Amino acid sequence: MSGEWPLWEIFIRGQHGLNHRHVGSLHAPDAEMAVKHARDVYTRRNEGVSIWVVPSAAITASSPSEKGPLFEPSNSKVYRHPTFFDIPEDVGKM
Amino acid sequence: MYAQMVKSEATTEDPEKLAAFQARIDAGEKIEPKEWMPEGYRKTLIRQIGQHAHSEIVGQLPEGNWITRAPTLERKAILLAKVQDEAGHGLYLYCAAETLGVSRDELTEALLSGKMKYSSIFNYPTLNWADIGAVGWLVDGAAIMNQVPLQRTSFGPYSRAMIRICKEESFHQRQGYDIMMKMAQGSPEQKAMAQDALNRFWYPSLMMFGPSDKDSVHSAQSMAWKIKINTNDELRQKFVDQTVPQAEYLGLTIPDPELSWNEEKGGYDFSEPDWSEFFEVIKGNGPCNAERMEARQKAWDEGAWFREGLMAHAAKRAARKIAAE
Questions:
Q1: Which residue of B lies nearest to A30 if distances are taken between CA atoms?
Q2: Domain limits of chain A?
Q3: First vs last Cα of chain A: how many Å apart?
Q4: Per-residue model confidence (pLDDT) at position A2
Q5: Which has the least CB within 10 A, A13, A58, B201, B261?
Q6: Which pairs count as long-range contacts for B247-252, CB under 8 Å and 24+ apart, including other chains?
Q7: Are B179 and B136 in contact (CB under 8 A)?
Q8: Is the dihedral angle over the CA atoms A54, A56, A58, A63 positive or is it negative?
Q9: Is-contact B66 B134, C-beta < 8 A?
Q10: What is the mean pLDDT of residues A20-37?
């Protein structure tokens, strides 16, 4: 049998009230050990205040080859950006 | 370097796809694991990143040798932290290699069977405490020369691992130089130990960059793919130019009578290491090859019950949780 420990994706919240951010992956037998390993592998210099671990197999990713059609809807909607609208200077800051 | 003499793989794919791939690399785009890549690119990267990872792991052995015998508690804590970093670096790199479709166990088995190599430098012994200074100063110094440009490599996971490693690596070189300063300013016997360590580690450090590859087709392909950024000779020259003044500051002498400043090229002229020695070490005939592989094999074999035990425990707990629900 393949006794290899499963792979986990590691997310760490840095010091500054930011979102958890993906930092890498590691192997661990279960979630509890994954957190302990993540501490040793990814926060040896105080890089984090919180750790999330997710089994890599549980992640569903978008396909790189469908990048075009997937993101097209937002491509064609320039009016979502505030700079699309011209507001006269007299109106002031908006 | 940590990856020496990595052969690139020939690629026989659709020329149109290859051209589009090369255009992405030339434009400075990062290639991510699930995107299309030439088979040769994938295989060369597995070989290079794998060798780099193995070097980090085997590289713990010569230094680990001195943890229990460090001269002070502070030096011991520092060395322990450094060796732990090397383990971390190995793990970052293994994970980067695994995104290319090779498993951790396959990589470990390839190291143990001798199919994959690690850097020649770790087959030299660390005989005394001054050697720990020389390893940090010279070996980590040489590694940094190679790793800094590799932060810009084209494969995303490799580049990100290198960025993380480089952030941590300068501590390693500084702690080595700090040991060398202490020894060089110590008693005449201590200074002699520092000189002796430099004498023994100088040429093996120059060998870390590998033989000249300015005419190598493998190198040319790897450079086009941006998985190699500089030639071996460029990096070696840079290393010598950086290290000579550091040795002068210590009051130590580089063991090379031919060493001299060349005003015209703006760098030092220096003697080549003995390449026949390098090839012997690569073949497995260095002073510590057998010992290093024995240590890795022992760790792998004796850790088996532990790896399996934790998996069994995890499976049992998962089953219990399902039963309770």
A1: B314
A2: 7-87
A3: 64
A4: 64
A5: A58
A6: B247/B198, B250/B180, B250/B181, B250/B184, B250/B194, B251/B184, B251/B191, B252/B180, B252/B184, B252/B191, B252/B194, B252/B195, B252/B198
A7: yes
A8: positive
A9: no
A10: 96
- CATH code for the domain defined by A7-87: 3.10.20.520
In degrees, rounded to 5, the angle at the alpha carbon of residue B143 between the alpha carbons of residues B57 and B148 is 115
CB-CB under 8 Å, A5 with B308: no
pLDDT of A1 > 60? The answer is no
Give me chain A's average pLDDT, please.
Answer: 91
**Which residue numbers of B have CB closer than 8 Å to A's CBs?**
32, 34-36, 81, 84-85, 88, 91-92, 95, 98, 103-105, 160-161, 164, 168, 304, 307-308, 310-311, 313-314, 317-318
Weakly modelled stretches of chain B, pLDDT under 50: none
Its pTM stands at 0.92
Question: How far, in Å, CA of A44 to CA of A24, rounded?
Answer: 14
Look at residue B211 and give its three-state secondary structure: coil
State ipTM.
0.88
Q: Name residues whose C-beta falls within 8 Å of residue B143's C-beta, 6 or more positions apart in sequence.
A: B1, B2, B169, B208
Q: What pLDDT score was predicted for residue B177?
A: 97
pLDDT at residue A36, as a whole number: 97
| Side chain identity at residue B145, one-letter code | M
Report the phi/psi class of residue B284: left, alpha or beta, with left for phi > 0 and alpha for psi in -120 to 50.
left
Q: CA-CA distance, B242 to B238, in Å (whole number)?
A: 6
Mean pLDDT over all residues of chain B? 94
